[in-house]
Amino acid sequence: MEMRMRRRLEIAAVLGTLGIFAYAAWTGLVWAPPDREMGDVQRIMYAHVPMVQMMLLSGTINFVCCVVYLFRASWKTDALAEASAETALVFGAIGTTLGAIWGRPTWGVYWAWDPRLTTVAILLVAYAGYMALRRFVDDPERRAVWSAVTGIIIAVDVPIIYFSVKWWKSLHQVQSTPRTVDPQMVYALRWNITAFFLVLIVFLVARYRIALAARLRETTVPEPAPGAQQVVA
Amino acid sequence: MRRPGLLASTWVLFWKDLLLEWRSRARVNALVFFSLATLLLFSFALGPDTALLRRNAGGYLWLALLLSSVLALGESFRVERENSSLEGLRLVPVDTRSIFLAKGIANAVLLAALGVLLVPVLVALLDVRIVLSWGRLVTIIALGCLAIAAPGTLYGAIASHARARDVLLPLLLFPILIPALVAAAKGTALVFEGDPMTQFPSWIALLGSFDLLYWGLGFVLFPRVVEE
Fold it and tell me: Which of A137, B55, B145, B147 fits as disulfide partner to B180, beta carbons 3.0 to 4.6 Å?
């Protein structure tokens, strides 16, 4: 009975997230006015900004999990670390691609060696390495410790990458122009940030469960099938 | 029996690594020829434009060192994996962190020697001139090799026990080394081209903070990496 209630609550939460996501997409794509200079292209921002923010949030969650794991080992922390690294990778990859699509008509190029852009791109490659490490280590305990160490090393690198890229291209710095932002745009952006945050939570919970189930399967000794001969090694 | 101190055991282990290197010499030879081949490849890939090659020489030096470092780091833990030498080392009553320090410093020394060796080749091959002092060049090579060695030793220990270790090590190491690569290549370029804006100290500072951070992190985290 309780299982059924929980299932219904979960379905309601996912449907609610979808509803808020649809409303947020409508505010961004239809309701908010087009940008005076960039026109409709600017609407990409309503997805790009929240996705990159969610990537940074996932990365932060991953870092916290990695530190916590080294102090207090638990499969739950390890599973959450795996889930957050993967959501960081997904949100970051799509967010960066959207940024490049926006950059082409606005800056004239898909890619600029802007410190923030480059830092996010390097982080994506680093998290891809982190996920590869998780795939290539079979012993779950070693995998958990090693990926925790790797997660910390990646997170510590973020400010240094940012500064190095900033200095690297200090000769022609991209000028960020502060503009007055229309309140309708702020409203649409806020809704989209909320929507993507909820999507992130749904993804994290789903991925966390898969990771935890995989850990439990790996760490529990399978019971011999009925009638099977016990093999003594 | 008194436990040997951190520095004493680090020194002994460091000496052991160098001795091992010296006795076989196969790894050193392979590294020298590999890095030379890399420098030649860069030159041929970019064409015979001497001015362009000279301008990019700093970058080539560090790319050659970075690519060689993957071989060096992989080898440095392969010799420990064979005959389970690392297990043997851990049974000795010494601080595990001294294994990290010894291996890290040995790798850094090896790479720095390689870097210094490559400079005359750059001078001959790419017509590079050392405008700033030799001292500054050696400083940036030393700091850059220390920067590769700290996370490299940590990741080398991890990758040596994983599947597909040859793929895994560069996959883990290269992204986080980008700031060190930027600083080292820029600093070396300044040594070759001259430094009218006195940017050299800021690159040294960036490289130095990278070193401090990752040597500290490796020192703290290494025992967890090799624990059973």
Answer: B147
